[in-house]
Amino acid sequence: MKLLIAGGGIGGLTLALAARHAGLDVLVLEQASAPAEVGAGLQLSPNAMHVMAALGLDAAIAARGFAPDAIEMRDGLTGGQIFSIPLGGSAIARWGAPYLHIHRADLVDVLRAQLPADCIRYGARLARFGEAAESVSVTLATGETVTGDVLAGADGIHSVVREQIFGADAPRFTGNVAWRAVVPISALGDLVPPPTACAWVGPGRHAVTYRLRGGALANFVGVVETADASSEAWDSAGAKAEAIKDFAGWHPVIVKLIESCDVLNRWSLFDRPALSRWHSARAVLLGDACHPMLPFLAQGAAMAIEDAWVLAQCLSVAQSPERGFEAFERRRQLRTIRVQGAARANTGLFHRRGTLARAATYGPMWLAGKAAPGFVHSRNDWLYGHDVTRG
């Protein structure tokens, strides 16, 4: 079976590796003209690292990434710790794999390095595709046609494959915009973020900080409630003065990160309803193309990685592509719907307004972290303990 993959990002490249691991022939069609260092940091929780270990990539990822000490929540104004969930060896003991941070470009490099050069075509923008009884044909923007047995749309939130199968949709603006930056630790002096995956919460906004590249870089994401949905593109350049205004009065670590960045990007966060079906006869969706994740649970990349493994396994044993697609949906839909819902719910959790509301929410969390740390750990078992490679 020849699998065509639209999109050479994390989901597409992981699918290519998982499909080759399962004995399939693959060709990745990536619209970018050449590999480039794009994006910022991402979090690979244990559920994603199970797949990377199955592909033999866990050591390479660990060498390029950063292992945080804990997952924690802090008050964005005072810096006071609300709770902390230890990671390191305890993550491996509890969930069977490490929790790592890595620059998106570094992860793409690790994945791409495992694929033969002829498995990826750059400058291959998908314009449309056609389905026949025994094949699928992809027409590129250049007019060239590429033929295979099945097509996987790993082409992101603005998926061309999704739109052709299901038609154009109307995404809903969440009322949030996000700032993103990467800053050298050496530029921060004494105001460095903790060596953790840290959510800083505050009225109508929150920030997330963690480290990359062995601790040499600090990653910053700041999410702010607003009525201005100026852009959905993650890489829209933003004005530093505006970001500083958004986080005025916040803890000095957050303010210093914003002041020290050379490039600050801003994008609006849109949400889309869950699809009841993810495929046609010869084409299927995965990752953000079918279940876009808001970045409030750090699971966008992890869900695409899980999808990739399961889809490859389902296609490798199915009697027909459509049977494989149906099995993939059965194994993945409830899981991704639950993760989407949990990510949405965190918006309200992170943005509590008013002293009483904040005390009522974060006070019990602080108390649970002190009195019952095992319970706090257990709240993440359904998410981090999930291992698709054992399914």
Which properties best describe this structure?
globular; 5-stranded parallel β-sheet; 8-stranded mixed β-sheet; single chain; alpha/beta; 18 strands
Describe the structure.
α2 packs across α9. The model has no long low-confidence stretch (mean pLDDT 92). The protein is globular. The chain is 37% helix and 25% strand. By secondary structure, it is an alpha/beta fold. The chain is built from 13 helices and 18 strands. Strands 5-4-13-14-15-12-17-16 form an 8-stranded mixed β-sheet. The longest helix is centred in the last third of the chain and has 30 residues.
Largest sheet: 8 strands, mixed
Characterize the overall form.
globular
Which band does the percent of strand residues land in? 25-35%
* Coarse structural class: alpha/beta
- Helical content (DSSP H or I, runs of 4+): 25-40%
- Rounded to the nearest angstrom, the radius of gyration is 21 Å
Task: Report, as a whole number of angstroms, the end-to-end distance.
Answer: 22 Å
Question: What is the arithmetic mean of pLDDT?
Answer: 92
Please count the beta strands (DSSP E, at least 2 residues each).
18
- Put simply, the count of helices is 13
Put the structure in a nutshell.
With 391 residues, the protein is α/β, with parallel strands linked by helices. Helix content is 37%, strand content 25%.
